């Protein structure tokens, strides 16, 4: 609005329409400023230390808004008595000055408000730290229960504040670091509860004390990292040293090499040689690793040698081109550039293959959690020798997984994924010894229920991280293949003019940045639900089962719709999205038919529930189809329709998360022994967790751990009774 006022053209003749438009804009600016300042003044009244600065900035903003309103009060210009009245036409510089004052004062208000938010987070962190110190020193259960209840409430507040801050962060790298720190705090809250209870029950047990101290230490580090991100600072003024990956090194190296086409003199040959040396040094992480296959090691060494030779040839031709820019020399330079880049691409492909194949093998090998199960059994038996044997095996497993994370970081492709790999490495590095100390405590006190519960909690954290690694591996592969997280191409994706005769008449519309921000939370929920559905379908041995295929198809389409909310993927316009929603609804209706067919195979007492869920699905899919087909004119109406389509898709996916495990259970019950399904995981904890997710998918949709923190607090009465 301000830009409109500043840029309006001075014309000798001004129509009434122009005058009224200018006046409306000026009044709108003044009203907007008034609303903004009212919020600023309310914030000032609640924060006395910044009240004076905030009040001054608000007064300046209000004054500037009123000045703009006065200068744009041009409706009376037609009257001769108002000739002396100063307006935008007689004093345009006054509007410019007022606009500058307004923008600077509004910026000041925003900066002060931001300082207040940061202060709130720091204050909340300090409360948590103070209560943690009290928790470390308690000596009775009753005192612990009271203080932990307070601690839980403070952690919930901290989770809310940092969750909002994480959403506001624009830097993807900081956002990933914040998410990692907050994930640590969420998991450690439960660990702190059971580890502290174990220590109170067995005060003379050294392994229990070590276990508890490890949790407190990790929580303090995570709290410190959150504050570093929020305040954009490092302790003792240190600069953050970002770990360099092979991918980022190759990308930068290729950019420099290709830059020689435009400018032969913008860097030295020494710079280029140093960059390649750094990349090849990092490849030693692969060639020196005991877990890299002989074949991959040989290929990496060969490509490293070839890269040096290609660079030598490139430098030779490059130096020649600096002296004589003949056609022949420039053609030789182009060939050398292409060969060097091709060699680097092959090296990149080889290290990616080495890292991802190792990760896939390790994750598959450790998916049965045999070592964890053995530790639980031998711990309850009090068999110290067996526990020692299995802790050695867990330490070996930890070293394998840590090495896997280090290698994956090199090929992750994006900074947020690099940070996720680093977080995973830290988690395995820390959780391994904590499981060992918890198992030793249980072996020393085999009849202790709390020691057993404590070991369960740490084992669950390990299993959860392994599960997260499967998702991370898939995302890394997606980035490498250029899909940026896109799933397989679904054949019914819209193509202009193919599915709809009226497509050409419709103007393709994309979501702008503001709309993407509004719909981001809904998109994230959709993303998490697709992961849940994929986890459920992967349990089925018979991947050709009709229910599985429809579920996978719906998950794939929902994922494309999630990518649309981020401005990515194959759905480029809102019309693409609406067509995809129609196809998604049709697929859901087909799934409902498959459920009806399944109901004929199940026992009579199971049939009503299945038919009820199928009818729910049909109803929801019909609603989605009606919404997707409804006409929408104008930007606001189109965005409302987009929002409604994604919301209804999310609701269908939520129902799908409940349907798949139900069908799995019914088929197991009715087809036991015919081998069409995998046997259910034998350990009790995984079944409980799967059941929880299936019945209440919102627990997965809560990405900041607030729900689980609140549950810890709610369950304190149970702890007290024990």
Automatic annotation (TrEMBL):
It is found in: Cytoplasm. It comes from the Eukaryota. GO terms for cellular component: cytoplasm. Keywords: Cytoplasm. One of its GO terms (biological process) is Rho protein signal transduction. Its main location: cytoplasm. InterPro entries: Alpha-catenin/vinculin-like_sf, Alpha_catenin, CTNNAL1, Vinculin/catenin. Transmembrane segments: none annotated. GO terms for molecular function: actin filament binding; cadherin binding. Belongs to the vinculin/alpha-catenin family. This is Alpha-catulin. It comes from Dicaeum eximium.
